[in-house]
Amino acid sequence: MQCPKCRLFNPDTAIRCDCGYDFRTKTIEASYLVAKRQPQSPGGSTFGGFLGGLLIGLIGVLIIHLVTEARATRTGAWWGFALRAIVAVLIVISR
Fold this sequence. Notes:
The chain is mainly alpha-helical. It has 2 domains: 1-34, no CATH class; 46-94. 49% of the residues lie in helices and 4% in strands. Strand 1 and strand 2 form a beta hairpin. The model has no long low-confidence stretch (mean pLDDT 75).
């Protein structure tokens, strides 16, 4: 039989529909279905967590590149400036 409220097809032996319609009394009661809440990550949304991880990964790649470049060209001044800039960005992001 089809529920008059939600149009869901139910077995002929059904007493209530999932939406809460009672076939015997022709009234609507509480639904059997309960909306499941997805746990929220502490860092915010999943997309934000993905972007944060991507940003940290890119910063790690940049650090590795700067270290190898500084060793190859012996430009210690450039490495010191870049390291300070990266630390400043990390401090701002962490707040």
